[in-house]
Amino acid sequence: YAKQKGGGQFRFFTQQMQRLALEALHVEYELRLAMQRGELELHYQPQVDLRSGEMTGVESLLRWRHPEKGMIPPAKFIPVAEDSGLIIPISEWVLEAACRQAKQWQEQGLPPFTVGVNLSARQFERSDLLGLVESVLASTGLAPERLDLEITEGALMGDVESARYTLTALRAMGVKVSVDDFGTGYSSLAYLKAFPLSKLKIDQSFVRNLENDASNAAIAKAVISLSHSLGLTVVAEGVETLQQKEYLSACGCNIAQGYFYSRPLEAHAIGEFLADTSRLALEPPERPASVR
Ligand code: C2E
Ligand code: MG
Ligand code: MG
Ligand code: MG
């Protein structure tokens, strides 16, 4: 009986795997078409300096505008792209599109700010990454200091020798490099110290609910002080409430990003966001009508 049951479970398991594999193939097929049809687009989420209130950068976030299913978030298709190798042409497109957009903002006369680009681990490990970054900067004319590459701990701590080589070369070009989702992976502090990094981004799982979660509050505070001891700028991700913003600010966090300030926006809306925030930062608030 046990054997029979086991066999049944096995059959169920392989059927399940087959179904998942077919689904992945289908997404892969659709994703290829999506690239040809220009259905991929980047949205940009503002990053705000907690002291001055100014927008210091934006993070580019990939979206798939599917003709029937609407806007698909990256979590739904990046894993398939990673497994199929499609992540390589997609990442190249992302880097090019983000740098081209940043250059366009500059030409429109917006004040300077950085553009963040998420690099997949597979892309970070490729030997042609440096050449790609160099050629995209050259073809778009974007100043290297305006580009901020986001890399997860996992990618950095895999092959640390080649990671150090790549980071050193990127920094020599003038490009910024940030550690994304910090605290969710396994970073060696010795390597963090030795790597030429610009920023640490505290993962949003530690920011979420920190007003009610004492351990999250303690972790966020510790990461902020660790970053500063390492001479790094610290960015908090997923800031949704005024309380979270105030707490992070009191702990000395430099930059915040999250729905409290803005959801990811289409490129054209960044100019309006900037105009609003710089007006808020420069002009005293209007007095209510009753006082006038
Ligand atoms: P990430 O790089 O850590 O990006 C932050 C994610 O948090 C984004 O989700 C953003 O929309 C979301 N977020 C921002 N503020 C808040 C907030 O206040 N509350 C909550 N609940 N969420 C917030 P998104 O756009 O769905 O991206 C998810 C992940 O997909 C990214 O995490 C990144 O790892 C990956 N990804 C996005 N774009 C790209 C890309 O161009 N290339 C690669 N390789 N990965 C990308
Ligand atoms: Mg990121
Ligand atoms: Mg992140
Ligand atoms: Mg994340």
TrEMBL record:
Signal peptide residues on this chain, from the entry's feature table: none
Start and end residues of each EAL domain: 24-278
This protein's name: cyclic-guanylate-specific phosphodiesterase
Organism, as annotated: Methylogaea oryzae
